[in-house]
Amino acid sequence: MIRVLVSGAAGRMGREVVRAVLAEDDLELVAAVDPVHAGEALGEGSDLTVGDDLASAITETTPDVMVDFTHPGAVAGNIRIALAAGVDCVIGTTGIPADTLDALASDAPDGTCLFVAPNFAIGAVLMMRFAAEAARFLPHVEVIELHHDRKADAPSGTALRTASLIADARASVPPAPGRETEVAEGARGALVDGVTVHSVRLPGLVAHQEVLFGGQGQTLSLRHDSIDRTSFMPGVVLAVRSVGGRSGLIVGLENLMGQ
Ligand code: NAP
Fold first, then answer.
1. Residue pair 81/5 in contact by the 8 Å Cβ criterion
2. Any catalytic annotation for residue 208?
3. Crossing angle of helices 122-135/233-242, nearest 10°?
4. 147 catalytic, yes or no?
5. What's the pTM value of the predicted model, to 2 decimals?
6. Which residue in the list 37, 71, 140, 147 is annotated as catalytic?
7. Helix or strand or coil: residue 156?
């Protein structure tokens, strides 16, 4: 059995992770932490109560893995506490700067694993892979990411990762046309690793992204839609099962798929 603690357990993603862990025979949900909801019954058929303090929850329940879907302002502190206690981390929270991840991993005890995925949906991982492949032949590309209106960070972690993969893959970097004629500030989006990224925030959306390539007389669109949050759960469960026995910082679900 893999003992799992869920951090951010009362949030939109955390609740889904609780359900996913409870549904798997080889995973045991040992603790749920979410300070504002502390003291509430977790529900979902579990007799756990939501805890308010990560460090004491770890001491009391000795989890093997912490899964964190919280907030960009909270996640680094949570990772530091978990790794220091020898608990492997599966992190879905986005908006963590790369140098912060490097520092957290280098401070971690030997044998602990810090796994971070900007997107746990298998289809989104494939979209990023296909985007990198297409960028080798069609270097003119823009990314449009669309999320629900309560998302804390912009651009999304998926868009940042996609831009980074495109930047690594394409042989030439064409100029982004139209920036010099931007009449309203922001009209042409943000420039991430040389790739233009547009962030849309609307109620009703979950998590969506389109990667739009342009070439002579043609366009190519790669689109992924997470229609509901269960789309992320097979990836989360895969990561929980995979971190034991690995160590150091691993970024991206593609590093675990097919292994
Ligand atoms: P959410 O509904 O706001 O849930 C976050 C939960 O964490 C809230 O209940 C929040 O409490 C709680 N929280 C805040 N600080 C905490 C702390 N120090 N310890 C424990 N819990 C804490 O947000 P969400 O939609 O679930 O998204 C959470 C994160 O996952 C975001 O960064 C989002 O971008 C990311 N995400 C990643 C993926 C992926 O595939 N990697 C997919 C979807 C979302 P309060 O509400 O009281 O602050």
1. no
2. no
3. 90
4. yes
5. 0.94
6. 147
7. coil
Counting atoms of ligand 1 from 1, which one is nearest the CA of 124? 40
Write down all domains in the chain, each with its CATH number in brackets: 2-116+229-255 (3.40.50.720), 122-226 (3.30.360.10)
Instruction: Judge if the upstream peptide bond of residue 175 is cis by omega within 30 degrees of 0.
Output: no
* DSSP assignment of 20-87: HHHH-TTEEEEEEE-GGGTTSEEETTEEEE-BS-HHHHHHHH--SEEEE---TTTHHHHHHHHHHTT-
Ligand 1 centroid to 72 CA: how many Å? 8
- Please work out, in degrees rounded to the nearest 5, the angle formed at the alpha carbon of residue 132 by the alpha carbons of 127 and 135: 120
Dump pLDDT digits (tens) for 102-122: 999 999 999 999 999 999 999
pLDDT for the residue numbered 181: 87
Q: Is 148 in the pocket of ligand 1 (CB under 6 A)?
A: no
> If you search the block for the tokens 């001491």, which residue do you land on?
59
